[in-house]
Design a protein that fits this description.
The strands form 2 sheets. The protein has a 3-stranded antiparallel β-sheet with strand order 3-2-4, sandwiched between helices. 53% of the residues lie in helices and 14% in strands. By secondary structure, the protein is α+β, with helices and mostly antiparallel strands. It has 2 domains: 5-67, no CATH class; 70-130, no CATH class. The longest helix is centred in the last third of the chain and has 25 residues, at 114-138. A hairpin with a 5-residue loop joins β2 (25-30) and β3. α4 runs antiparallel to α5.
């Protein structure tokens, strides 16, 4: 059995990278330094090209960070709604997540409920952290405390 690699990395930054679902952007984890590298299709400078080449040449050193799937985001909203005690708010949110534009309507409803909005952000952060840690576990990386 292979030993897990210990890396010091910024978990919040990793969560942000997974949340960016833009097709033009990619993030990679440097398995030697723990650094999170960002590459955008919109950036065509020499630095970006060098980084792309380096990732290609040393593919064992870099792991592409997966993007969050939209169905996961939708399931997160459904799961959050199930935690809400206020029946009226729960109903408003259930209506909001039906059909196209669900994410926007969900957030718009929460604007009128600051406490629940904060709860949503905490709920979402916790889920993103759990997913990031599961992904690290899948690639045999564990967080270093130093």
């Amino acid at each position: 059995m292979e030993k897990k690699k210990r890396l010091k990395l910024d978990l919040d930054e990793l969560c942000e990278a997974t949340e960016n679902s833009s097709y033009e952007d990619e993030y990679f984890l440097d398995l030697e330094t723990g650094e999170i590298l960002f590459i955008s299709e919109y950036t065509n400078d020499g630095e970006t090209e060098k980084l792309k080449d380096q990732i290609e040449e040393e593919s064992d050193r870099y792991e592409r960070i997966p993007k969050a799937e939209s169905h996961e985001g939708y399931e997160d909203m459904v799961d959050f709604i199930s935690t809400i005690k206020d029946k009226h708010l729960a109903e408003l949110l259930e209506v909001a997540i039906n059909g196209k534009g669900a994410f926007r309507r969900f957030k718009d409803v929460l604007l009128n409920y600051p406490m629940e909005r904060e709860s949503w952000f905490q709920f979402k952060d916790d889920i993103m952290q759990r997913r990031a840690l599961e992904w690290l576990d899948d690639i045999d990386v564990t967080l270093s405390e130093e």
